[in-house]
Amino acid sequence: MRMAPFALVLSLVGTIAPALAQGCPGPGTFWKRDTLPVSPTGLTAVSVIQGMCEGESAGVVFEMPANMPVQRITQVVAPWGAALGVNGFQAALDVEVYDGVSFSGANVNMGTQVFSLSTQATANMQVQSHGLNVLDTSTYNIIVGAAPATGNPPVRRFAICFRCDLNFHPSGTCATGWPANFFTDNSQQPTFPFTCNNIITPQRTSIIEIAGQGWRDAALAQVTGIPLCPFYYSGVWCIRACSEDAFPAFYNTFANGCPSSLPTAQLISATLPRVGQTMFVIVNNMPVNLGLMLTGLSNVSSNLGPLPLNMTPFGINNCLLHVSPDFLTTLVGGGGSASYSLAIPNTNNVLGLQFYQQPFVFDPPLNAFGGALGNAAALQIGN
Fold this sequence. Notes:
This protein has about 375 residues and is mainly beta. The chain has 2 domains: about 5-245, no CATH class; about 250-380, Immunoglobulins (Immunoglobulin-like). The chain is about 0% helix and about 45% strand. It has one helix at about 115-120; strands spanning about 5-10, 15, 30, 45-50, 55-65, 70-80, 90-100, 100-105, 105-110, 110-115, 125-130, 130-135, 140-145, 155-165, 180, 185, 205-210, 215, 220-225, 225, 240-245, 250-255, 265-270, 280-285, 290-295, 300, 305, 310, 320, 325-330, 340-345, 355-360, 370-375, 375-380. The strands form 9 sheets. Strands 2, 3, 6, 12, 13, 15 and 21 form a 7-stranded mixed sheet that branches. Strands 5, 7, 10, 11, 14, 17 and 18 form a 7-stranded antiparallel sheet that branches. Strands 22, 25, 30, 32, 33 and 34 form a 6-stranded antiparallel sheet that branches. It starts with 6 loop residues before the first strand and ends with a strand.
């Protein structure tokens, strides 16, 4: 990073399509630590940090609520601006996401890099001035919040970062500064006494990867012993993101079974499959209060053949098997229904695992096999 003063510009900060309508395009969580409006319009003052060189990175660290499920990043937003709000200056950025960020003074421990656009997609993000540039990341399965919490009190953190691979401004260089660069939300020039204002530039929020130093807290970073804040950096990067629950717990019927002497047996989820909890499922329409729960790893293949499989040759006439019968559990009921339970370990290792279930209810007079297969359901273990 070059010791170039930041540029305070009164400029039109518009969003680059697609627009940030209500923060995110769909349901989920909108992550933002800057003070600009969600969708800036009109004249909005920002600070372009001209000293950021090619190869260096800007990032914002976000803190997750203690009870928040693991998240999937669906969208990221990169600020790219120019002095006086001039439009049309372009750059190519890498997008990097880290999970498990912690701090030690000015040093930032970045944890695990869970995503790099250049590595995992062999691409970069094309941005231009002047505004908030949006990239849809919903197809990349970027997971954050899985790393253990750190600190006292313990906090789960992740960072959304942008590395400037190429800055196409025609007159900028690292030695002289880049008139088009990342910008922050700051709208105030430094005033006496010249100290870093913790309200304008809060610690453990904005981070910078400085050539030769590594990642540093922007509020505490120094170059050649000189603090960057407030003369060379001030404010919070206008870096934003959207996320959704990465592994939502669900239990959904996906195929119909066949009736016995009663209507087709149904699977009714009483509690969803969540980490550290017990899932309960009710099986109804049981003629003799006895049955089996078939639990499988697949709904497309089994050791009996491809699924769905017509069970007529096995004596269950005109009935389809929809799940691989990998695990069998006896169901003993009363009053025409039974309860099935599954204790789920309290570990993130099982998050996102999917299984398939279908009940078999005994009904001896019905057919040669003595029963029928009920409706089939798919489940996913979530938070």
